[in-house]
Amino acid sequence: MVEWREVNYRRYGLQTAFWSVMFVLLLMILSNFINLSNTNQLSAYDDDWNDMSAFRQDIKDMGIETRSLVSSPLLLADIEDPRNTTYVVAGVERDTLSLPQFDDDGFITIASDDGYSPSEVEAIVTFVENGGTAIILEDYGFAGTIAEAFGVRYNGDQLFDTTYVPELNFNYVWMCVQTTPCSMNGSQIDTDSLSTHERWADTSSALSAHPCAIANGQAVTLEDSGVCAHHWSDGEIAYNGTYRVLLNNITALELIPNSNNPLSELAIRAVTSNEAGIDVNGDGKLVVSAIQSEETPDLYGRFNLSIEACAKSTCNPDDGGRVFFVSDGSPLINAIYDYSGFAEGEYGPTDTEIPANDNRKWALDIIAEAMMTSIQDDGLEPSENAMVIFDESRHPQNAVLADSYNTIYFLLVYFTGEGLAMLVLFLILFIAFEAVLIRKKDPDNWRHVFSIIYYGFGDANRYPYYSKVEKIRQVFLSKVRNQNGLTREEFHAMSARELVALINDPTLAKFAIEPTKYSLEQTVSIVKRVKAWGRR
Amino acid sequence: MWTRKAAFTFTGGIALILIGMMISNNQMMILGLALIAFIVVNSWISGHGDVEVQRTLSADNLYKGDDLYVELLITNRSNRKTQLLEVYDNIPHEMKLRSGLNQMRLNLSPGESARIRYVLRCPLRGHYSIGPVSLRSRNTFNLGVEEMFVDHHSDIVIFPQIKEVEEAFLRSRTPKMYTGATTLRTPGQGSEFYSLREYVPGDPFKNINWKAYARTGELMVNEKCRDAVTDLYLLIDSRDIARIGTVLKNPLEMSTVSAASLAAFFLKRRDSVALGIYGEKLSYLPPDTGDKQYFKILSALAGVSAKGEMPLQAVTNSLSGRFSRGSPVFVISSCEGDGTVPAAVRDLVGRGHEVTVLSPSSIDFERLVSRIPRMSYEVLKLERQNRLTTLAGSGAQVIDWMPDMDLSQALMQVRGY
Questions:
Q1: Residues of chain B with C-beta less than 8 angstroms from the C-beta of A471
Q2: Could you tell me the residue ranges of all domains in chain B?
Q3: Could you report the per-residue pLDDT of A266-275, keeping only the tens digit for each?
Q4: Quick check: A455 and B375 CB within 8 A?
Q5: Structural fold of domain B167-180+230-416
Q6: Shortest Cα distance from B62 to chain A (angstroms)?
Q7: ipTM of the complex, rounded to two decimals
């Protein structure tokens, strides 16, 4: 009994250890997809100070549909009307799942640390080529591959500029959307250094000017002001082409020379002051000189903050797709975008006072230009299919199963959108069908089978033994003894002569006494004689 | 459980959805969804196996080769229709379906009943159990199958066949032993008064002699004379070697038939019959008479299977002390592979028993299933003849029983030894 218990303890111990290891492995796997500690940031569907709910609400108020993309930008391939769709990427906080796929050269590759897989980047490029508008707001995250596809590169190191907000800190930097740098006058931007948006405000070119700029001075009601409602003032559209966009923790944008850019026109829309610096070694200090060296690794000068890539020089959405790159992921967060609401505590109590800025105007102008209908009679209304898609696929979700759901959705999109995965999926489906065909059996029909096939075969190995001469002789002598009613002792005590007389058959007597070799025929003959012996 | 059709429908549905997603074809996706939905909705409409089953057999005991009539009554006790319900009565594979079917497809309304009738032939002796009743419920489009069973069993015992034995065949050198029902001057079960004795606990009340009680004041019981002529002892060899041959023709089967027939014959004459079966172990049924003993013997013989290597001498050493003096002993054995048979027979004969060895010819049974070379067969037969001759020389009556020989024919050989 004790041994039985010991065996059971061992078994239970083994079981516990096994399931513990399985549980730990499961946790490790889940921890890659579920991040409970991370709150939802830069999400258009949450209303914390660092989310973008105010921006989304404004878009909805314009009468434009908003959607989230939680799985993969591969779905952009399914957009029916890219011309009237704007795709917003704000702060790519995590990498994509690294899964095998075909690269541009047709080889199998595994995307890693690129934020977006080659197929996803390809889907975004195709979307833009088909007339879509993309807004890429990023700093140190994972949107590098998107930018590089359009001939732009995110520097990735923190940029400091003299045009920062001294009431806050040097991380808050002003971006003036104009071709020339703006400068500071004390703690405020020097208004003399401000100019207007190079393209939007230039109403001399109707094709490239902003539609709200063209409608400037037009007397309309607020209800009819449509996508230019944010410019409406005192019964008319009062467009102002000056944009002071507040950024936070920024980097720089670079143009990649000789890149194979699907959009031929790249225009720099905003730059830093001439005294900006980039902290290359990330030590928090700027040590610069005319030549970059180990002692002075940081960079100094004027850097790009916003680049606009367009299919044509007019950058008109009707002429092709456009991509807006900004070197910061957070210009549209509630705290900056809706600074007044933030100050009033709509996004939680705060002591920080964000200065007034034009982030809202700038962002809504991008949306207005992209979404406004091209039908003259519709005035300033957004087009019927207007839609803004927020890429939520690279933001950690704070719901317990949301990330798992997103991951499953991502895999679904991956397997139905990526060439290699589709190939694998076809193979899996084929195997599944084969498996069903081969393995899945219907229950057999019941049928009574009468079966009593049961044999005892004896021992076939003894047959050769019974054909040996010695055995035959032994059997014969036993027969002689039995026939004559002799005991074993009496029989063994007999002389040969007596035995011969008892047998009374010269052939059998010779067989019984002389150990001679016999041929098969002779043996058969002997057996016959033995069988007949004693019957006479 | 899904059927193959359901598995195909499901896989097809999934494939259509995925391929539809791949090629952005909404119709294909909708068709796939429709297939999946079809399976889901179909799974809601399922039957059930909540039925009551009652089986009636024409007999609880049968003789080998007889027919058994079975009736199965199935009643739907639930408030729902069963949908398509297959009912299958599991019967032992040793029984042959002679007429009717042991299965039926039903769709019973609440409270409705159905009957299945079939006839079985039982060609093999043994203890059998009919059941359980298997049920298989299918849903409307045969997409799902659920199997269950009703644990309802009916036990039946198939006795060995009883062959006619003619009295003339059982003559012996000591005719007194088989003279029929005459009283013996020994106490036992019978009809004639033997003596009075004091009551001991356990005696039946009907045996109490109340007059003697009134006279003496003590409880006295009547003792009767034994009616039986003698006790007959049957020793059956059920060693592993007894299974040589086919399932219907082998030494053990012939032994059981002969033992049952002899027991029937002697019990009919109101003799007492004892039965010893040896193989893996020895089971012994003490001598007794009457129908109850007959039933016990048949039941014991029905359950005999070939196992073990127990020698006959171990049996006789164990039992011979219990044998009534001078009573006949039937040893039914092929005598193959047991070197103790001559010594055991000699011992029994020495004790004054009339020993008859009924020996099924195992080598001829073996020949039914194995191709024995002619010369080996002849030598094996010679050796067997020697063995039987030895037994005959020991004072036993020996019967060499060939496979194609009736028991009555075989018993005629008694006079030959």
A1: 379
A2: 4-44, 51-159, 167-180+230-416, 184-226
A3: 999 999 998 8
A4: no
A5: Rossmann fold (3.40.50)
A6: 18
A7: 0.76
